[in-house]
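dumping this here so i dont lose it
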């Protein structure tokens, strides 16, 4: 009985690997991509790419574990969901209200540590932002809000 359960579990595991997942990244237009359009300083660029761009841009870099079902389903759902809420690759296509809203929310989520997602940080050391790095990003977003250049 136990052997049968193990056998069929393995068969099921093997079969789900064949469910197709769309991991294609849409091409990025540098004219509307946040870090390029804003000419963000190198440090900010690196922080955003390391900590946010995997889920909030069309430049997602998939880790190895993202290719194994059912983990891959969860990863893809986070990426799709993340892009839907906020996509830095299409930043300049947002209207003023949406930009303001996203900057405000970004500050909040970085402050209260809901972003980058806690589960993601475990596997991405470079996204585990220090207090100083969080402060730097927050300051950058706050300056944008204050000067109304968004
Ligand atoms: C592992 C994927 C992942 C990473 C990395 C990530 N996010 Fe998110 N983000 C999501 C998902 C999924 C949502 C939507 C669901 C939710 O709000 O939890 C979201 C929601 C948000 C929202 C809320 C948008 C809204 O409409 O309320 C903001 C703002 C945000 N993220 C900013 C950031 C910033 C800034 C970073 C980097 C410091 C970041 N995120 C890193 C996955 C991610």
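and the seq i came up w/
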């Amino acid at each position: 009985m136990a052997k049968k359960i193990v056998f069929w579990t393995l068969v099921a595991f093997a079969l789900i690997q064949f469910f197709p997942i769309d991991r294609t990244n849409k091409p990025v237009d540098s004219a509307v991509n946040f870090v390029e359009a804003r000419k963000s300083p190198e440090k900010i660029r690196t922080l955003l790419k390391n900590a946010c761009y995997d889920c909030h841009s069309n430049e997602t870099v998939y880790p190895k574990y993202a290719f194994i079902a059912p983990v891959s389903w969860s990863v893809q759902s986070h990426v799709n969901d993340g892009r839907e809420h906020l996509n830095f690759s299409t930043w300049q296509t947002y209207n003023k209200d949406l930009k303001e809203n996203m900057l405000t929310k970004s500050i909040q989520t970085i402050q209260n540590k809901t972003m980058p997602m806690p589960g993601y940080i475990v596997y991405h050391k470079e996204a585990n932002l220090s207090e100083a790095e969080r402060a730097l990003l927050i300051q950058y977003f706050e300056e944008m809000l204050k000067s109304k250049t968004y």
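The CA atoms of residues 51 and 127 lie 4 Å apart.
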